[in-house]
Amino acid sequence: MKAEFFFKICLILPLILFVDYILMVLIGRVSQMFGLSNDFYCGPYCFFGKAILGLSLVYFLYLILPNLQELIMSLKRKLI
Predict the structure, then answer these.
(1) Is residue 20 predicted with pLDDT exceeding 90?
(2) pLDDT value, residue 1
């Protein structure tokens, strides 16, 4: 259980953040190729970046929630 939790924290989270970074770089490069102005980077680009990070957070919480519940239950059993 702890090994799986450690794996998710130390490997899956950085992988998700790296994929987010690559997506944002690709979106930035494509928008630069199409000649979008600085207004794009201060508006839709920021919104899209926040949306990607938000979805990544929800996905990561979905992945670790069962492990967190097991960890909390095991700690409660040890305290009782």
Answers:
(1) yes
(2) 63
